[in-house]
Design brief:
This protein is an alpha+beta fold and 245 residues long. It folds into two domains: 79 residues, Arc Repressor Mutant, subunit A, CATH 1.10.10.10; 155 residues, Chorismate lyase, CATH 3.40.1410.10. Helices cover 28% and strands 33% of the residues. The protein is built from eight helices and ten strands. A six-stranded antiparallel sheet has the order 4-5-6-9-8-7. Strand 5 and strand 6 form a beta hairpin. The longest helix is centred in the first third of the chain and has 14 residues. The chain starts with a helix and ends in a 6-residue tail after the last strand. 28% of the residues are buried. The structure holds 2-acetamido-2-deoxy-6-O-phosphono-alpha-D-glucopyranose. The site of 2-acetamido-2-deoxy-6-O-phosphono-alpha-D-glucopyranose (16G) has 14 residues, from helix 5, strand 6, helix 7, strand 8 and strand 9.
């Protein structure tokens, strides 16, 4: 079976640009586990020939997926399906979406889900008046049953009727109420896991992790979310595409 037979054909009825069609076929193959972590893609020239498209089309499609973190290029060896989770640092996606896009099955364990009042520090980050109501969601996030991250989220209470409104995905709940953030600020820092965090994540105390704080904003500029995500250092790579000024 050739590689393109394995991943499925480009749809002749589809009028999207070819590189986009190819990206869709590859994205689906990864999400459906037709392609697994570390699987090699054919050399660009062979792949283009198999598909009957130009090499430039293949290159453009693969460049995009490398940018998204679904594929990785290894010098001299070729292009592979990313094995560690490569997360695009500049895309406002949710944990659930990131895992599904990689063919992984996400789930969460709730550590707590409460209603409360904004702390003085949160009131500054979220731009809320002192005493404003907030919801707090603390979770262990898993992919295929393996713990990946701890997440501590505080949401302004105006964004949903009650904390129970969240089933599995915070962003799905926010989408339903029309309060999914459209812009975010992120800050990333290296951390060593505390004993408690290590225990929850099933790693050794003082193992390295990445702390990402995300502040999410609505179109009208109001902040809805502040989340601290502690990702396992051995499971995650953050990638970002940078353009010259
Ligand atoms: C991601 C976000 C986090 C957001 C969560 C929602 C980063 C660094 N953080 O983990 O801010 O709250 O997704 O995920 O990407 P959910 O919709 O699956 O609950």
């Amino acid at each position: 079976m050739t590689f393109s037979e394995r991943i499925g054909r480009l749809d002749a009825q589809d009028h999207a640009p070819l590189y986009r069609q190819l990206q869709k076929v590859l994205r689906d193959a990864i999400a459906n586990r037709v392609l697994g972590p570390d699987d090699a893609l054919p050399a660009e020239r062979d792949f283009a020939e198999e598909l009957g498209v130009s090499r430039i089309t293949v290159r453009k499609a693969l460049d995009g997926l490398v940018g998204e973190g679904l594929l990785v290029r290894r010098q001299g060896a070729g292009t592979f399906v990313a094995a560690r989770v490569e997360k695009n640092f500049s895309k406002l996606s949710s944990f659930t979406e990131d895992m599904i896009a990689r063919g992984r099955v996400p789930h969460s364990a709730w550590l707590s889900r409460t209603e409360g009042q904004v702390t003085p520090e949160e009131s500054l980050t979220l731009g809320l008046s002192p005493g404003a109501p907030v919801y707090r969601f603390n979770r262990i996030r898993y992919a295929d049953g393996a713990p990946m991250a701890l997440e501590y989220s505080t949401l302004a209470a105006f964004c949903m009727p009650s904390p129970d409104f969240v089933e599995t995905s915070l962003y799905e709940a926010l989408e339903k109420t029309g309060h999914r953030p459209v812009r975010a600020l992120q800050r990333l820092r290296a951390v060593l896991f505390t004993d408690e965090q290590a225990d929850l994540l099933g790693v050794a105390p003082r193992d390295p992790g990445l702390l990402i704080e995300r502040r999410g904003f609505l179109k009208d500029g109001r902040a809805v979310e502040v989340t601290q995500s502690y990702y396992r250092g051995d499971a995650y790579d953050f990638v970002a595409e940078l353009n010259a000024l």
